[in-house]
Write a structure and sequence with these properties.
Elements lengths: L3 E13 L4 E13 L3 E5 L6 H8 L7 E6 L2 E2 L7 E4 L11 H5 L1 H5 L4 H14 L15 H13 L5 E5 L7 H18 L2 E6 L2 H7 L2 E5 L4 E8 L14 H15 L1
Parallel strand pairs: 2-10, 3-8, 3-9, 6-7, 7-8
Antiparallel strand pairs: 1-2, 1-4, 4-5, 9-10
Helix pairs in contact: 7-8
Bound molecules: adenosine-5'-diphosphate and magnesium ion.
The site of adenosine-5'-diphosphate has 13 residues, from strand 2 and helix 1.
Amino acid sequence: MTALHVRVSDFSKTYKTRRDEIEAIRAVDMDVRETEFVSILGPSGCGKSTLLMAVGGLLPMSGGRIEIAGQLVTGPRRDTGVVFQSPVLMPWRSILNNVLFPIECLGLSLGEYRRRAIELLEMTDLDKFRDDYPSELSGGMQQRVAICRALIHNPSLLLMDEPFSALDAMTRDAMNQELLRIWEEFKKTVLFVTHSIREAVYLSDRVFVMSPRPAVISRVVDIALPRPRDLSIEETPEFNAYVTELRQAIEG
Ligand SMILES: Nc1ncnc2c1ncn2[C@@H]1O[C@H](COP(=O)(O)OP(=O)(O)O)[C@@H](O)[C@H]1O
Ligand SMILES: [Mg+2]
């Protein structure tokens, strides 16, 4: 059994707007172990992004505590990488320089990380495009660039917020396979937000189901499917039994 990596205890979040207060998350407890792939599954607006951004240190909390590697999260951390729903690349920078952007922000040596950036681009089949600009790449390719950018400083924890939901179904399948390959190669801990039940089952070791707002974790399901997984696993009765179980959990 590997060590605990992320611990969320009694986390709550209420957004205060000028007119009223929105209780987004009531009380969430969640433990994630090192190198585990965990998905957070729930309907739109239930607070998935809120939870993920809090783990990333990108959002003030209303209550509770979040620890990464035993340390209280008080802001963004160097050992965490984030991938958002849209790739948010900088259009005026080449693909290679987009991947290297965090290195600049962190004040690290560009020369030292250039080799690693090229390796990541090779691994995601993008090395031919390193001198191109984001507008010359498809949506799926841009999202692969965003994944390379999140991995460039070698974080041990990868936070992903519906990273493939804007892609067409076939590209999404390919990206899911690619993500598992990267995860198996680099042994990262991944916290992955999605509203797709099948995506959560395909990718995860465990799936946390969030209830509608104000959110709590309503169910945790261990996905005991063998790895490495390829897409044919989606045809198996075991896979579809998990899908059914999670659908019923979401419907309450
Ligand atoms: N900055 C904000 N101000 C006020 N309410 C917000 C803000 N961000 C999110 N919310 C509300 O909090 C709830 C959860 O949002 P979010 O975490 O984005 O959900 P999800 O990612 O599951 O779709 C929603 O009802 C949303 O309207
Ligand atoms: Mg969201």
